[in-house]
Amino acid sequence: MGSKIGGTLFALVFLLSFGGIGLGAGWGIVSMFRDSFRAGDWVLVQAKVDDAALKASRGSKGGSTYSADGAYRYTVGGRQYVSTKLGFDFLGGSDNIGDWQQSMAEFLEQAKKSGKTIPVYVNPDNPAEAVVDRDVRWAMVLFMGIFAVVFGGVGVGALVAIGFIWFKKDQGSKRGRQGKQAAPVASASSGIWVLWVFAFFWNAISFPAAILIIPDVLETGQWAGLLILIFPFVGLFVLWGAISATWNLLRRGKPAITLEPPQPRAGARFSGVARYSRGVKPGDVFTVRLACLFAQRHDDPSPVPRWSKDLLVRAVADPAGGARLPFQFDPPARVKGVPPNSVRATWKLVVEPKAGGFGASEEFPVAMQPALEVTEDTPPVLPTPEEQRYQATLAKMLGPAQAARLTPEQRASFAELPPDAQAMAAKVVANAGLIRKVVIGIVVLFFAFQLIGILTAILR
Q: What is the mean pLDDT of the chain?
């Protein structure tokens, strides 16, 4: 409960601060459109400009903002009115978004100098309400839209986080109910959604910012501002990654996992198969990972990995159609840092193409049973006859000491090589020490000759 309250308070900070800014920006956009729409049927009246000025304010970082000020008087129904409203600007005050302030000030100043009248829009229901420009400032909408989307998105994310903290379903009660078919717990689609959201917000910031800044850069000649284009290019790259990951997921689909036994036991070997009905060809290489995660508390949503093992598996043709990935693991009976038979320990399988890519992996829960108590009657786990023969072959080709140092992944990769390649690899491994010395000697001689050449050029 304490962690839920702490997480809720942390999320509330983002909800109130970022969400409040996003809500305010969104309301400003709505109000501008509302006022512009409301003024659509206002009547056009000629007005005399009494005052016009452009005020400039220089910020602490060197940038300048502008504010168009003016006053005009007009007559409706024999009565004279005075107004200072120039446009429907929710923020008010000064800004440097586009050139609306400068253009409005110049328009009013020219009318004042020439003595000519200007057209203004007057509310027929309330003649005291008038405005010079009733159109929407699209540059301002674009600017405020960035805050509405980005800050509002953070606020929505904080709200979702609070809901996840308090209303998420407890997955602990589901352990041990897994049959032969494992169901994904954190699929690639969830990672792809994260990538899409990131791409949306990144591009929602970078492209409008570039659209607003580039015209000023071209006008002032401050070419360093063109570096802003880096961000839209990065946004396009992230967007392409989201599209590519989505296409690969749709093309490949989710694998079906079969375990034997369906509920493995810690400390005992088990095997499994990941079957793809489409999108995977025989020969494609995948990484299959078995991992043990441990949560410090029962309500901890992010358990940390305590043990993991990776296998490189090559896809083979499936008689039922498609392709399959056969794998085999020897999970440890005890994992360091995890109490025996702890209900906060979870196991999962991760299947991912060797090429990787964001959102390419699929995760599946494994209902791992506790290890058997070790007694004198418990038989040791021995390698199969096929494994014994292959170990003997490796020892003969590489030598017993070198063969013993090979990892299971290296043994599996070695087994996939044709006989000629195995013999060549055995020679390379057997002479690895000599090869290493020769390479080091060549590198040392190269740098020595380079150093001699530099010293000779300096002494000349």
A: 77
Question: For residue 175, which of 363, 344, 1 has the smallest C-alpha distance?
Answer: 344
- For residue 37, give every residue at least 6 positions away whose Cβ sits within 8 Å of its Cβ, in sequence order, or none: none
What pLDDT is attached to residue 185?
A: 40
Sequence-separated (6 or more) residues with CB below 8 Å from residue 404: 395
Q: Residue 453 corresponds to which tokens in the numbers above?
A: 């050449």
Convert the pLDDT of each residue in 114-173 to its tens digit: 999 999 999 999 999 999 999 988 888 887 887 787 777 777 777 777 776 666 544 433
129, 122 Cβ separation under 8 angstroms: yes
Cβ within 8 Å of residue 431, ≥6 positions away: none
**Rounded-to-integer distance, Cα 243 and Cα 227, Å:** 26
Residue 22 phi, psi dihedral angles, 5° rounding = -60, -40
| pLDDT confidence tier of residue 7, bands split at 50, 70 and 90 | low
Alpha-carbon distance 407 to 141, whole Å?
Answer: 60
Q: Which amino acid is at 445?
A: L
Token digits for 456? Answer: 């000779």
Residue 314, both tokens: 């090559």
C-beta of residue 347 within 8 angstroms of C-beta of residue 263: no
Instruction: Evaluate whether 89 touches 140 at the Cβ level (below 8 Å).
Output: yes
Distance CA 367, CA 17 (A): 42
State the first-to-last Cα distance of the chain, in angstroms, to the nearest integer.
77
How many Å apart are CA 415 and CA 390, to the nearest integer?
8
Question: Among 79, 81, 77, 78, which residue's Cα sits nearest to residue 48?
Answer: 81
Could you tell me how many helices (H) and strands (E) the chain has, helices first?
Answer: 10, 14
Round to whole Å and give the CA distance between 410 and 422. Answer: 12
**Count of other CB atoms within 10 angstroms of residue 162:** 19
Q: Which residues contact 98 (CB under 8 A, 6 or more apart)?
A: 137, 139, 140, 212
3-state DSSP call for residue 130? Answer: strand
Topology of domain 256-366, per CATH?
Answer: Immunoglobulin-like (2.60.40)
**Model confidence over 414-425: pLDDT tens digits?**
666 677 776 777
State how far the Cα of 164 lies from the Cα of 100, in Å rounded to an integer.
Answer: 45
For tokens 């040791």, the residue is 380
Can you tell me the distance from the alpha carbon of 128 to that of 135, in angstroms, rounded to the nearest whole number?
Answer: 19
Contact 122, 45 (CB under 8 A): yes
DSSP sequence for 358-423: TT--EEEEE-PBPPPPP-TTSPP----HHHHHHHHHHHHHH-HHHHHT--HHHHHHHHHS-HHHHH
Tell me which residue of 164, 201, 210 sits closest to 3, measured CA to CA.
164
State how beta strands 323-329 and 270-276 pair. antiparallel
